């Protein structure tokens, strides 16, 4: 099969012909239809410090995908060829305290698809049956392809109740923008999002935020005043990984506010902890998605009108992966998709 492989310990990804994965008795073999490119994939492509320390070479990369089941292992009873599925990107151990207690998203030994084990940028991927989510008929393939990052957004945005609350999101990347749509769907009063990239602020506006703010041009204090807010934001979703964005957030939260942190800072990040203490803030770290409560919530919110399609801005055939990664790198993109279908990809190349 064709696959995008990190086959050398240097910058780049290479399209290679490799054997189709073999199937264990608990595994499901999926023909990949559409994949999404994640920031993580870009780090692996660029071969930065994190990637060098983390990625075993050679490795098929990628973890955001939708596909069709082609065959199942002997132990698999409840998945069948022809079903449309996505994969949960964290393969958990099943044996640690949290796994045994049913809190699989808190597994102490989780392995990442396309990070620690073979990924989805390929014609086929094999995954344990416990890592698959079967899609309902109402979910279109492109939305299904990005259930992984949508799940990050849902897990973060629903970490704290937002009904009637004022929500501040720092970082209008694909996940921040989806989190804005989710917060709206879940009944927030105001949803304010910040970014320094005008293209992304515009995309956030199209998704229906109350206000999309460039912190280099306007202050959050000013926005609060403009909206008639008096006590600060009730819920914060940190989705930039940027220290100054996070500090701005801390300075604009109400007493007793809740912050869910998804953005991954490049290194240690200093803050004024007195703000956390005296303003009695709760800060919660978020990694991945809840298995499978987040997946359930995604499915039913899409069924009840949540629309995140506008976040998908670019579509490429797998053969054009270099162009797709370039679109990601430019920053002037929302979600970038790679189409692995024989015909589909070729016809719909480009924006
Ligand atoms: P992204 O890099 O596309 O988006 C981050 C955005 O933050 C960018 O648009 C950037 O312009 C913006 N930004 C930079 N400086 C800013 C500032 N000072 N103020 C406001 N915004 C600023 O990433 P994404 O794919 O949307 O993911 C969001 C974050 O979540 C990233 O940090 C990513 O690494 C992280 N992430 C975490 C998990 C997890 O499980 N914890 C999973 C996926 C992604
Ligand atoms: Zn575990």
How would you sum up this structure, described in words?
This protein is an alpha/beta fold. Helix content is 30%, strand content 26%. It has 13 helices and 18 strands. The protein has helices at residues 39-46, 49-54, 97-100, 141-145, 147-157, 174-185, 198-206, 220-227, 243-250, 273-278, 293-303, 321-330, 342-347; strands at 2-6, 14-17, 27-37, 59-60, 64-72, 84-87, 90-91, 111-112, 124-128, 132-134, 166-170, 190-194, 211-213, 233-238, 253-261, 282-285, 312-317, 335-339. The strands form four sheets. Strands 3, 5, 6, 9, 10, 17 and 18 form a seven-stranded mixed β-sheet that branches. Strands 13-12-11-14-15-16 form a six-stranded parallel β-sheet, with helices on both faces. Strands 2-1-4 form a three-stranded antiparallel β-sheet, with no helix packed on it. Strand 17 (312-317), helix 12 and strand 18 (335-339) form a beta-alpha-beta unit. Helix 5 packs across helix 6 (174-185) and helix 5 (147-157) packs across helix 11 (293-303). The radius of gyration is 20 Å and the shape is globular. It starts with a strand and ends with a helix. 48% of the residues are buried. The model is unreliable at 344-351 (pLDDT under 50). The structure holds nicotinamide-adenine-dinucleotide (NAD) and zinc ion.
Task: Kindly summarize this structure in a few lines.
By secondary structure, the chain is α/β, with parallel strands linked by helices. 30% of the residues lie in helices and 26% in strands. Zinc ion is lined by residues 92-93, 95-96, 98-99, 107-109.
């Amino acid at each position: 099969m064709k696959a995008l492989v990190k086959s050398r310990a240097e910058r780049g990804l290479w399209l290679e012909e490799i054997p189709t994965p073999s199937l264990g008795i608990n595994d499901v073999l999926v023909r990949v239809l559409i994949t999404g490119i994640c920031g993580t994939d870009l780090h692996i492509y660029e071969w930065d410090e994190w990637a060098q320390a983390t990625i075993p070479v050679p490795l098929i990369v990628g973890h955001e995908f939708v596909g069709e089941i082609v065959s199942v292992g002997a132990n698999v009873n409840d998945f069948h060829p022809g079903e449309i599925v996505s994969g949960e990107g964290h393969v958990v151990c099943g044996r640690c305290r949290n796994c045994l207690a049913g809190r699989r998203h808190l597994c102490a030994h989780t392995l990442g698809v396309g990070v620690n084990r073979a990924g989805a940028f390929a014609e086929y991927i094999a995954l344990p049956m416990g890592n698959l989510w079967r899609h309902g008929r109402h979910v279109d393939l492109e939305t299904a392809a990005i259930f992984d990052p949508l799940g990050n957004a849902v897990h973060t945005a629903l970490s704290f109740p937002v009904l009637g609350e004022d929500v501040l999101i720092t970082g209008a990347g694909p996940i921040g923008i989806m989190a804005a749509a989710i917060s709206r769907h879940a009944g927030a009063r105001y949803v304010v999002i910040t970014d320094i990239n005008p293209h992304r602020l515009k995309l956030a506006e199209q998704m229906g935020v109350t206000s999309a703010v460039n912190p280099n041009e306007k202050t959050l204090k000013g926005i609060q005043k403009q909206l008639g807010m008096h006590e600060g934001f009730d819920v914060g979703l940190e989705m930039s990984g940027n220290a100054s964005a996070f500090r701005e957030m801390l300075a604009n939260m109400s007493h007793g506010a809740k912050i869910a942190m998804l953005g991954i800072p490049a290194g240690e990040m200093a803050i004024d902890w007195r703000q956390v203490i005296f303003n009695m803030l709760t800060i919660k770290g978020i990694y991945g998605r809840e298995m499978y409560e987040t997946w359930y919530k995604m499915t039913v919110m899409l069924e009840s009108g949540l629309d995140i399609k506008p976040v998908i801005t670019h579509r490429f055939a797998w053969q054009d992966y270099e162009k797709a990664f370039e679109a990601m790198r430019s920053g002037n993109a929302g979600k970038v998709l790679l189409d692995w279908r024989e015909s589909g990809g070729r016809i719909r190349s480009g924006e």
